[in-house]
Write a structure and sequence with these properties.
about 220 residues, about 30% helix, six-stranded mixed beta sheet, single chain, 6 strands
């Protein structure tokens, strides 16, 4: 509870964050792979990969450093060491934001482009990755928490369509909702990020969002 009490006394308006533009590769190949993913997994034939975000989905990278974390997202196609998701598509994973351990915020791609960061909900969500969680431990920092609070409030103002702020570990809560689009009933992975404590602290400092449907 110490973090909750500490943050409750902070005036977050005093914290100004720069969003650093750090674009990953989003060439025609990646765009076409994204269109193919949308068709094969969501049953939609689309002319572009633009989305209307309704969910902010919080992750950790399970990698120790920012440099190694962002490298995983850079190329258009998946590396060879992701067999659990490579059968579903060669499209590489991506995310809209990445937050370093010290709270530095990077925007990696356009906010209205679909990122591959979660099963079933990519077509209506914005992803925020936080560097850390090595060994699936809840080790994200207070600086990252403050940056996530800032980002969620920033996105809330930018996209009035956003209804939910959820952790990656909560993604399957949406399976019986209209937001869930995945057509492959066998395509699921177990997720632990970013953890219940981080989401508790984040939710304590934001308002105006619905809880995950299974809560």
């Amino acid at each position: 509870m110490k973090i909750l009490v500490l943050l409750f006394t902070l005036n977050l308006s005093l914290f100004a964050y720069e969003i650093i533009q750090t674009p990953i590769q989003f060439d025609e190949k990646r765009i076409q792979l994204t269109k193919d993913y949308i068709k094969n997994h969501y049953g939609l034939n689309v002319k572009n990969i633009k989305i209307i975000p309704k969910i902010v989905l919080i992750h950790y990278t399970a990698i120790k450093t920012y440099e190694t974390s962002v490298e995983r997202f850079t190329r258009s196609t998946l590396p060879n060491d992701r067999p659990e998701i490579s059968k579903a598509s060669a499209l590489n994973v991506s995310t809209h934001f990445m937050v370093e351990r010290d709270g530095t915020i990077h925007q990696l791609m356009p906010l209205d482009f679909m990122a591959r960061h979660v099963i079933g909900l990519n077509y209506n969500s914005i992803g925020i990755e936080n560097v850390g969680g090595v060994g699936y431990k809840e080790d994200l920092t207070v600086n990252q928490l403050l940056a996530n609070i800032f980002l969620v409030k920033y996105l809330q103002k930018k996209f009035p369509t956003i209804e939910y702020v959820v952790g990656h570990h909560e993604y399957r809560c949406f399976e019986d909702t209209e937001l869930w689009l995945e057509k492959d009933d066998g395509y699921r992975t177990e997720k632990f990020d970013p953890g219940s404590e981080f989401m508790r602290d984040l939710r304590f400092n934001i308002s105006g969002f619905k809880a995950a449907p299974c809560d």
